[in-house]
Amino acid sequence: MPIKPVIIKDHNQKNSLAIGVTKPFYHFVISLCYFYHALEIIELPIISPTEYMLENYTHLGKSKWEIYSEVVRNIYSEIGNLEKSDKVFRDTLDYLTVIYGREIKNT
């Protein structure tokens, strides 16, 4: 399936809108404490899997979806000047379990 990537970068030095472990209400209240948020929005063209991509980037994965996801990840990191991480969503859920002391469902 094609995707339409959008990169949102927050340039606020004191408070990041990307706080991932706070509850939504507290996140909202903290965000309201700052009068100004400097956001940069980078809208990229639609990216579709192509035969060229699947044939020439086989070193990035074994299956078609792995190759496609790695190519999109590389585009994100290069255009957005972002650092790549090997952290997966399960790691975030495990961290939240430690913080809040209860199992978080992956739905």
Q: Can you give keywords for this protein?
A:
mainly alpha; 41% helix; two-stranded antiparallel ribbon; 107 residues
Describe this structure in words.
There is one protein chain. Helix content is 41%, strand content 9%. It has helices at 24-32, 51-56, 64-80, 89-100; strands at residues 6-10, 39-43. It has a two-stranded antiparallel sheet. The longest helix has 17 residues, at 64-80.
Strand order of the largest sheet: 1-2
Percent helix range? 40-55%
Count every beta strand, where a strand is a DSSP E run of 2 or more residues: 2
> Which radius of gyration do the C-alpha atoms yield?
17 Å
H/E order of the elements?
A: EHEHHH
Round the mean pLDDT to the nearest integer and report it.
80
Secondary structural class:
mainly alpha
Broad shape: extended
Main beta sheet: 2 strands, antiparallel
Our estimate of the beta-strand percent is 5-15%
Number of domains: 1
Structure annotation, total helices: 4
Q: Low-confidence parts lasting 5 or more residues at pLDDT below 50?
A: none
The end-to-end span amounts to: 21 Å
Itemize the secondary structure elements and their pairings.
Blueprint (H helix, E strand, L loop, with lengths): L5 E5 L13 H9 L6 E5 L7 H6 L7 H17 L8 H12 L7
Describe, in short, the structure shown.
The chain has four helices and two strands. The chain is mainly alpha-helical and 107 residues long.
